[in-house]
């Protein structure tokens, strides 16, 4: 199962971004995680079919209503999900 790491910048902390990402990932059957980073960005790792990963990337560029996404960088990753769910990491 392919995985991608996303680095989302802008106003993405304190606006419900992680909870929004978890809900969306749950609806799409995505595995992985989302977490706030010390620099104010949000890191998200999404593991799913390539088409679903593209859906998550496009959605991440918009985010929840209260967010203001500046940029979404996408990186390859060798992350292997240990759980069958999408988690919020603290």
Task: Explain the layout of strands and helices.
Elements: E1 3-11, H1 17-28, E2 31-36, E3 42-47, H2 50-60, E4 68-76, E5 86-89
Parallel strand pairs: 2-5
Antiparallel strand pairs: 1-3, 1-4, 2-3
Instruction: Name the average pLDDT.
Output: 97
Number of alpha- plus pi-helical segments:
2
Strand order of the largest sheet: 4-1-3-2-5
- Quickly give the structural class: alpha+beta
End-to-end Cα distance, whole Å, is 24 Å
Strand content: 35-45%
Helix fraction bin:
25-40%
What is the CATH T-level topology?
Answer: Alpha-Beta Plaits
Overall shape? globular
Looking at the overall shape, the CATH architecture is 2-Layer Sandwich
Number of domains: 1
Total beta strands? 5
Instruction: Characterize the biggest β-sheet.
Output: 5 strands, mixed
Uncertain stretches: none
Over all CA atoms, what is the radius of gyration?
12 Å
Specify the CATH class. Answer: Alpha Beta
* SSE order: EHEEHEE
Describe this structure in words.
This protein is an alpha+beta fold and 90 residues long. The protein has one domain: Alpha-Beta Plaits, CATH 3.30.70.100. Helix content is 26%, strand content 38%. It is built from 2 helices and 5 strands. It has a 5-stranded mixed β-sheet with strand order 4-1-3-2-5, with helices on one face. The longest helix has 12 residues, at 17-28. It is globular. The model has no long low-confidence stretch (mean pLDDT 97).
Summarize, please.
This protein has 90 residues and is an alpha+beta fold. The chain contains 2 helices and 5 strands; from the N terminus they run βαββαββ.
